[in-house]
Amino acid sequence: MIWLLHGNLGSPADWKPVMDALRSNGIESRALNLWKYLECCPKSLPEMGRVLCSEIAAQDKRPYICGYSLGGRLAMHAVLAHSPLWKGAMFISANPGLKNEEEKAARRAADAEWAVKCFSTPWEDFLREWDAQAVFGGEAGNPGRSSLKPWRKSISRAFIDWSVGAQENLAPLLKQSRVSQLWIAGERDSKFTALARRAAGDKAVIIPHAGHRLPLEAPEKLAKCLQQLITATYE
Question: Are 84 and 60 in contact (CB under 8 A)?
Fold first, then answer.
């Protein structure tokens, strides 16, 4: 089975088009709600990686994991927490980590501001400000995000606990991992295209005419990539 992890300000519903395309090819998948894991208490990125391994291993002996953006970073931590569990991993529009402490400190400060806005700003105003970021290239988010409002405490906490500024640079460890990895980015998303190529070289998959939000923009192409990953790692 493929376990799917959504991005920030996302939900399992973001994966429905990808899941439908996978199902049409006989591939089973399941999307997790990441916000439930922060409902009770703080949880660091390494802790969350271990939680994912434990929960998924109880249900699936040789799973695949696929994460988008924030979910991609959580998927990296899961892969590194217990590599023998995973048959393969796909990281979509995902950052393996920042290289220096100045960058990390600046990112933690910026994410702390987002955490406050998430918790205190009127929800629709907050979503508009979030979508206005350059990384999204003017693309609107999933229109169903009003349903996320009850989870805003967890989402606010995620800006702190799961900030890329709180993350170690995982690139060297991932390069050493024996888990089959597929790195994907959208052609119009120059920052994450560069990160994918840095991580995977000419094996990075760059999807033409697409930006950062690939599960919404290119679900059929993502499903095809996942199918190819499964074929490549079939035993």
Answer: no
Q: Quickly count: other Cβ atoms within 10 Å of residue 132's Cβ.
A: 9
Report residue 138: phi and psi, to 5°.
80, 0
As a whole number of angstroms, the distance between CA 12 and CA 7 comes to: 9
**HEC assignment per residue over 127-166:** HHHHHCCHHHCCCCCCHHHHHHHHHHHHHHHHHHHCCHHH
C-alpha distance from residue 31 to each of 15, 70, 85 (Å)? 7, 14, 18
Cα distance between residue 214 and residue 233, in whole Å: 23
Say how many C-beta atoms besides its own lie within 10 A of residue 2's C-beta. Answer: 25
Confidence of residue 234 (pLDDT cuts 50, 70, 90): low
Q: For residue 195, give both structure tokens.
A: 């990160």
Region 165-184: mean pLDDT is 96
Cα(206)–Cα(51) distance, rounded to whole angstroms? Answer: 31
**Statement: residue 223 has pLDDT above 80:** yes
